[in-house]
């Protein structure tokens, strides 16, 4: 079910680009962006879909992935509150090249292509934001190729957890603020492309290294830079 966003200022509070817009541009966004509830396990979009919206997470947890020709699931990224995605497909006017699935109940904001194009044509700060976001996403995807091909599962889990604190791609989680993440071991397995049991083993190892602590229903990051560098001592 699609509906107008209630209390848009609060809903956009974690989105970096929203704070950059001129008041008249933000008003257009508030008037034209809608939200939709996606239950856990539901698809936000599928590979091959026509791209008509730029999308962002109001609250919840999404996974961006694709199925390789040999049937392997390849996870590209995860998105939490404040994260937006799909700008590349909109700019190239090509079909969606990945699936996006809700790992838990999630509310998603949908910005129509016309609104997105209006901001591109009229807001220099919005263009600067997109340049930064595209560059950061490219860097993340390059590193994920390394994770998949070269790194062992323990390192993959460590790096994927660290990537959740990316200031542009997941602005809802900021280094230096609350370092506790409400995330299940199954969800960690999904974003790291390992089984839940293997994710549990990796978390036990990372806990012994004093990089994180495993809590009930989540984890607390103790050493973010250590997770980013793992397994370096």
Mind explaining what this structure looks like?
- It comes from Undibacterium pigrum.
- Pfam families: cNMP_binding, HTH_Crp_2.
- The protein has 233 residues and is of the alpha+beta class.
- It folds into two domains: 2-123, Jelly Rolls, CATH 2.60.120; 151-229, Arc Repressor Mutant, subunit A, CATH 1.10.10.10.
- Helices cover 41% and strands 23% of the residues.
- It contains nine helices and twelve strands.
- It has helices at 8-11, 23-32, 87-92, 113-122, 124-150, 153-163, 185-192, 196-208, 224-229; strands at 2-4, 34-38, 43-45, 53-59, 62-67, 73-79, 84-85, 99-102, 106-112, 180-181, 212-215, 218-221.
- A five-stranded antiparallel sheet has the order 1-2-9-4-7. It has a four-stranded antiparallel sheet with strand order 3-8-5-6.
- β11 and β12 form a beta hairpin.
- α6 crosses α7, α6 packs across α8 (196-208) and α7 packs across α8 (196-208).
- The longest helix is centred in the middle third of the chain and has 27 residues, at 124-150.
- Let me know the largest β-sheet: 5 strands, antiparallel
CATH topology of the largest domain: Jelly Rolls
Query: Secondary-structure element sequence?
Result: EHHEEEEEEHEEHHHEHHEEH
Please state how the strands of the largest beta sheet are arranged side by side: 1-2-9-4-7
Number of domains: 2
| Class derived from helix and strand content | alpha+beta
Question: CATH superfamily of the largest domain, called what?
Answer: Jelly Rolls
Uncertain segments: none
C-alpha end-to-end distance: 49 Å
Write down the overall geometry.
globular
Protein name: CRP-like cAMP-binding protein
GO molecular function: DNA binding; DNA-binding transcription factor activity
Domain Cyclic nucleotide-binding: 17-137
Keywords: DNA-binding, Transcription, Transcription regulation
């Amino acid at each position: 079910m699609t509906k107008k966003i209630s209390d848009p200022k609060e809903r956009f509070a974690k989105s970096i680009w929203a704070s950059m817009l001129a008041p008249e541009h933000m008003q257009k966004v508030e008037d034209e962006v809608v939200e939709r509830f996606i239950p856990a396990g539901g698809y936000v979009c599928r590979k091959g879909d026509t791209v008509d919206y730029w999308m962002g997470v109001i609250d919840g947890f999404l996974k961006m992935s694709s199925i390789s020709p040999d049937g392997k699931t390849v996870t590209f990224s995860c998105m939490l509150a404040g994260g937006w995605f799909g700008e590349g497909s909109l700019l190239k006017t090509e079909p969606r090249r990945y699936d996006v699935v809700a790992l838990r109940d999630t509310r998603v904001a949908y910005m129509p292509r016309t609104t997105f194009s209006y901001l591109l044509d009229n807001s220099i700060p919005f263009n600067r934001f997109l340049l930064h976001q595209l560059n950061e996403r490219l860097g993340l995807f390059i590193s994920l190729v390394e994770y998949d091909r070269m790194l062992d599962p323990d390192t993959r889990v460590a790096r994927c957890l660290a990537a959740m604190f990316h200031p542009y791609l997941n602005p809802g989680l900021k280094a230096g603020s609350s370092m506790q993440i409400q995330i299940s071991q199954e969800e960690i397995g999904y974003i790291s492309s390992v089984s839940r049991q293997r994710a549990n083993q990796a978390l036990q190892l990372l806990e012994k290294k004093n990089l994180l602590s495993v809590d009930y229903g989540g984890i607390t990051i103790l050493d973010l830079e250590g997770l980013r560098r793992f397994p370096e001592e």
